[in-house]
Every structure is written in structure tokens, then in C-alpha cells.
Structure to design on (554 residues):
């Protein structure tokens, strides 16, 4: 493959930014052409990034999909165990050393962690996405589009509450359905959705009764039950809780609200799960922003703003094409957190990639956090909505994390590691392997083959690494491979690549979900908790009160 380049590695490994800057990226058009994209199917954003258009799927709709691999990890330390690095290193091995057509599909990082202790998400060492600085910062502006859309909706909520508090029903109707020059009123198309929900089948605003006008024009949002906040893509703790409406023109309509981080917006989750522009429009309009005083959910389309949100997101829906240090293609798209959303990159990026690599190729995507949360949501949420079926899951483990799970001292970001993590202690590693075993068992229950990638550190000993490998094989992993891709790039993950290829080719199990959709929220929570080993789930009085009033819970 013309875009593949072999790295000249040095030891000790330089800083990530120095490694990234030591390799000049190929022009992104070369990556696109090698991948099989036609000129009209991507738009360049400078020399090193391009937006891949969804129209690519139209041309490739009859093409067969490649192998589908998800990378998760054991329960991590605060320092992370190298899932992103392993994902990139595996793809570099498959593409640059094993001659396979491969695409890496990963999330766009938030600037919050990037400027915090965690840092960026481009991988590390000799397994990185480049240009690293562009990847970790604004990239092609998708997160900024989410910020704009989210805050437009937040502004619309407060504006609507203000007008309802200061206007009569007639005045509100005049604002929502203004008369034209012939003094005729019409409903906007989006309004019929709300009318149907209200049980009103009229098509002429002037035919509404006074009672129907009141129901139609007043959302009657309860200020205490508004769940939609403003967002900003930096860590700014002093904006987590604020008071709005303190200006003289707001007439004392103050309320407490706050800012979340931009990638925590539901719009990010929508972007990651959407399958088309029309699907995104529907999902954005259905987002619930709060509850009325009567206990009814209020949506973005009730506010009439779903279309405006879609316009702001019209470019963000297209995945961004980049490259690894060794010239393999990467699709970067969406970045929902796994602890508040589903923690996976977009469905459309995976769909495009699977068609482009063909039946003998590989698409490798990464799930956020440990596999008990990111991979679980990959299977039960992302795969359910995408209809895509994975053949293999890679679980990343480190000796460091297993020592912590075996009873070692807490690993704290920003503080030196205890000596126990720098010296051999095979028994502590074995004790901690119970965590790895449970991750393997849970992941295998979905009907996929599991390969364990042991991300080796310079302080690990052969006996410690072998202990991890033995525990993984005994737990049912197809293979467990010691990897050095951080220090050696794709060359350090060749055996992992071979193991993943074998696991995909030998996959014969039936993929299955942990729970069906047609059970209650309570039953779904209990199914997930029990899969972790919990005996049951107890709910606080606050949760029980909320579910009794607002949720179909039990």
C-alpha cells in the first residue's frame, strides 16, 4: 500500500509530541484515495484532515462488510491502561505489517481532559494519530457545532419561559403563528407533532378553541425540572452551578442551572448513534429538555427548534479522516463519555469503514472506560441501533492495574507510583487477575471471541506478564498477547494482529444482547448490575420518588 511507512523508533521513547512531530503526515487526499474514496466523497479541511461524506454509503451499499473489532479494557487506574494506544498500534500492525486493509474508528477527544491531567487521546509513543495537535484540539469543529446547538436550545428554553410568563395566550399564538399579509395563519410543519401529542387534529390556528390555544402555546415548563444545561468544552468548575436571569430585562425570572462539558451534551450522544441526516433530525427533535408542571415531558420539537439544531449539525454528521504514524487511515467521529452516555464513536463512521475495507479487511473501534461500561454499551446500545455484528473484542490489560486490583496501593494521577508497581510481585498480579477474568467472562457472554492485549511497560517482568497470559487463557480468551506497540509501533503489535485476525476468522458464535428493549428500566439496570456480579439493586428514596412521578420504571 502506497501510504504505508515504517517507523524509525528510538529508545527511550521520546515525548508523544516529539514522536508525532517527527513524522510528516501524508496529504489526506493520498490516504483517501488509498482507502478507496472517490474525489466527490470527501472534503479536505487543510492538508491533513478531510470530512468523509455520508453519500459514500450510497455507492457502497451492496458491498460486503469487513471484520468488526472493538477494543475495551480492564477496570483502569486513573492513569489509563492504553486502550487508544493499543487500538492504533493494532491497526498499524494489521495495515503496515500484515498487509490488511484496515480503518481505525475512534472518538474525538474533549478539550476538558486534553487540558487536564489525563491529556489527549491520540494514542501514545509510536502508536498515534497525527497531526496529534490538530486531533486533540479543534479538529474540524464538530464539538463547537455541538456547543452552538446545545446552547441555542438552552437559550430557547429560557426565552420560552420568559414569554409564557409575560404574554397572554393570544399574544403567544400571534408570535408562534403570525398572520401573513392576507391575515391568514398557518402552523409550521414541526408544530403538527405537538398538536398530535396534545390530541388536536386541526390544521388552522384560527379554528383552535381558547382551551386548545392555551394547551398549544404554553409548555408550562417547571423550572425545577429542567434537565437541559448549557455547555462549554473546557473544565471550568465555577460554571457548574450558576444563576441565570439576573438582568433587569428578565424581570426577576432567576433560576439555578449550570454548565456541563460539551461532549456531555445529549446532542453528542445523538451524533454518535445517528444513521442519516433524517434520523439525526428526528433524534434531535425528540430530546427531552424538562418536564411541565403537569408532569409531561417537553422536547426540542415542542420548542420548535429541532430543525435549527439540525442545520447547526449538518457538517458535524460527517466523520473526519486522519492517519496514523504509519500511514493507516483513521475515522474520528463523535466523543460521548461512557459514564453519562454510551462512550463510543459514531455508527456512521463504522458503517462507512466496514464497506471501504471489504470482506477481508478490518475495522477496529474503541469503547470508552473499562469494558464493563464502554464495551457493554457498545454491544447493547451501539450495535443494537446500527445492526452491525462484531466478531472479536480486545481487552487491554496492564500489570500495573492488575497489581492495584490485587490489593496494591491506590494509583493517584499526578503522584509518583508506589515501589510495588516498579518491582516484581507475581502473586499480587495473580490476585488482581480476578478483574481481568470477569471482563473476559462478561464479554464472551455476548457471543464474540476475546483476545487479551497485555500492554507491557518497561518495569514489567517476564513472570508477571506470563501470569497475566495464563489467567486470560484459563478464563476463556482466544489468545493473550504481550504487546510493545508504544515503544515499537505496529511492529510491537504484530502478534496481536495475528491473534485478532484468527479470532475473527474463527468466529462462529451467535451475537446476543444482555437484555431486550421491551422490559422496564428497572429490569435493564438489574440485568447490567447482575452481569457485574451484584446480587441486586437498591434504589434511594429520591430515585423512587422521581420514578413514581415521571418514569415507567417497574
Amino acid at each position: 500500500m502506497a501510504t504505508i511507512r515504517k517507523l524509525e523508533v528510538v529508545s527511550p521513547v521520546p515525548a508523544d509530541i516529539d514522536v508525532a512531530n517527527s513524522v510528516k503526515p501524508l496529504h489526506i487526499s493520498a490516504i483517501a484515495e488509498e482507502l478507496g474514496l472517490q474525489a466527490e466523497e470527501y472534503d479536505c479541511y487543510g492538508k491533513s484532515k478531510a470530512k468523509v461524506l455520508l453519500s459514500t454509503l450510497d455507492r457502497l451499499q451492496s458491498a460486503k462488510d469487513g471484520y468488526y473489532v472493538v477494543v475495551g479494557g480492564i477496570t483502569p487506574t486513573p492513569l489509563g491502561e492504553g486502550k487508544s494506544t493499543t487500538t492504533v498500534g493494532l491497526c498499524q500492525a494489521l495495515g503496515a505489517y500484515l498487509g490488511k486493509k484496515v480503518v481505525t474508528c475512534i472518538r474525538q477527544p474533549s478539550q476538558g481532559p486534553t487540558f487536564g491531567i489525563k491529556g489527549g487521546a491520540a494514542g501514545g509513543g509510536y502508536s498515534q494519530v497525527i497531526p496529534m495537535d490538530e486531533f486533540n484540539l479543534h479538529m474540524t469543529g464538530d464539538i463547537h457545532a455541538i456547543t452552538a446547538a446545545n446552547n441555542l436550545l438552552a437559550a430557547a428554553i429560557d426565552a420560552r419561559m420568559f414569554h409564557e410568563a409575560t404574554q397572554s395566550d393570544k399574544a403567544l399564538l400571534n408570535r408562534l403563528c403570525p398572520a401573513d399579509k392576507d391575515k391568514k395563519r398557518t402552523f409550521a410543519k414541526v408544530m403538527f407533532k405537538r398538536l398530535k401529542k396534545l390530541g388536536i387534529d386541526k390544521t388552522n390556528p384560527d379554528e383552535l378553541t381558547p382551551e386548545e390555544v392555551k394547551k398549544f402555546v404554553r409548555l408550562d415548563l417547571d423550572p425545577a425540572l429542567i434537565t437541559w444545561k448549557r455547555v462549554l468544552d473546557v473544565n471550568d468548575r465555577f460554571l457548574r452551578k450558576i444563576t441565570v436571569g439576573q438582568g433587569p430585562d428578565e424581570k426577576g425570572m432567576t433560576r439555578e442551572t449550570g454548565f456541563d462539558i460539551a461532549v456531555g451534551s445529549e446532542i453528542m450522544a445523538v451524533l454518535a448513534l445517528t444513521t442519516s441526516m433524517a434520523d439525526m433530525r428526528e433524534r434531535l427533535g425528540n430530546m427531552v429538555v424538562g418536564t411541565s408542571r403537569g408532569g409531561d415531558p417537553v422536547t426540542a420539537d415542542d420548542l420548535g427548534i429541532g430543525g435549527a439544531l439540525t442545520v447547526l449539525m449538518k457538517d458535524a454528521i460527517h466523520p473526519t479522516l486522519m492517519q496514523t504514524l504509519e500511514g493507516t487511515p483513521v475515522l474520528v467521529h463523535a466523543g460521548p463519555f461512557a459514564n453519562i452516555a454510551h462512550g463510543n464513536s459514531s455508527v456512521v463512521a463504522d458503517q462507512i469503514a466496514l464497506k471501504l475495507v471489504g470482506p477481508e479487511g478490518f475495522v477496529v473501534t474503541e469503547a470508552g472506560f473499562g469494558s464493563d461500561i464502554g464495551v457493554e454499551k457498545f454491544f447493547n446500545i451501539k450495535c443494537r441501533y446500527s445492526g452491525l455484528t462484531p466478531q472479536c473484542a480486545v481487552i487491554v490489560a496492564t500489570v500495573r492495574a492488575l497489581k492495584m486490583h490485587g490489593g496494591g496501593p491506590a494509583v493517584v494521577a499526578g503522584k509518583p507510583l508506589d515501589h510495588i508497581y516498579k518491582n516484581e510481585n507475581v502473586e499480587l498480579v495473580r490476585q488482581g487477575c480476578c478483574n481481568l477474568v470477569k471482563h473476559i467472562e462478561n464479554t464472551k457472554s455476548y457471543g464474540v471471541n476475546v483476545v487479551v492485549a497485555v500492554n507491557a511497560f518497561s518495569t514489567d517482568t517476564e513472570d508477571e506478564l506470563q501470569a497475566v497470559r495464563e489467567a486470560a487463557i484459563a478464563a476463556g480468551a482466544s489468545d493473550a498477547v504481550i504487546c510493545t506497540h508504544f515503544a515499537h509501533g505496529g511492529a510491537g503489535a504484530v502478534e496481536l494482529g495475528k491473534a485478532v485476525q484468527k479470532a475473527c476468522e474463527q468466529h462462529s458464535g451467535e451475537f446476543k444482547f444482555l437484555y431486550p428493549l421491551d422490559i422496564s428500566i428497572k429490569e435493564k439496570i438489574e440485568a447490567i448490575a447482575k452481569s457485574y456480579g451484584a446480587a441486586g439493586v437498591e434504589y434511594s428514596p429520591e430515585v423512587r420518588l422521581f420514578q413514581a412521578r415521571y418514569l415507567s420504571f417497574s
